[in-house]
What we know:
two-stranded antiparallel sheet, 54% strand, 2 helices, 12-stranded antiparallel barrel
Amino acid sequence: xxxxxxxxxxxxxxxxxxxxxxxxxxxxxxxxxxxxxxxxxxxxxxxxxxxxxxxxxxxxxxxxxxxxxxxxxxxxxxxxxxxxxxxxxxxxxxxxxxxxxxxxxxxxxxxxxxxxxxxxxxxxxxxxxxxxxxxxxxxxxxxxxxxxxxxxxxxxxxxxxxxxxxxxxxxxxxxxxxxxxxxxxxxxxxxxxxxxxxxxxxxxxxxxxxxxxxxxxxxxxxxxxxxxxxxxxxxxxxxxxxxxxxxxxxxxxxxxxxxxxxxxxxxxxxxxxxxxxxxxxxxxx
Length: 285
């Protein structure tokens, strides 16, 4: 009887110890293969603005405009991304009904420093010039090269710059260069909704070769000028509301570039509200 009891106790002891022995045994882990993210991506978006202003001058005759874009991107590595895309906007200047900006280039990132180098072609289908009270058929499409450096000091402050220009401004054969410096201060997000708020401003200078006194061979009082803007933006995920004030130092009474077919006040100060939606295919996955 004692032998039987000892056998049962021994068997129970071995059974209880088995899991502990198994836990001590090395287990061959399964290899988890993580697919590398695709280097390709597409960014796209749309915007509704109360006034389309380019370098301080209204391109929509002080009227609302609808805009949209898409941009293909290829990331070579953490430092270099290639891109190409099209941006478009409705117009109401009388020179054309729409503008399409076709651009391509490369963005470089080294630490907090960024640099965007590229070329943009401004296409105005069916464009014409408005000279001396009548419209003259003339393609005003043209291209410019650009460089846009930027630096992010921290999560709250970043600065940027733009140098853009070419030798055929408005398809006139004359050169023009635009310089701009900007700064953005990002405030802590509102809780609990997580709305990011930023305050930004920019000062730019538009220059023309030889004072740029002609437009399509017609004498015109067009001169260099300075423009500036300041505003606040509210961002929630892919949606941004931008409220901004624009102005220039152009002498509006005599400036040819401030006269459109129906409005002689397109260079005046303006308060503009813009609602934007921006996202990428990769962020939708």
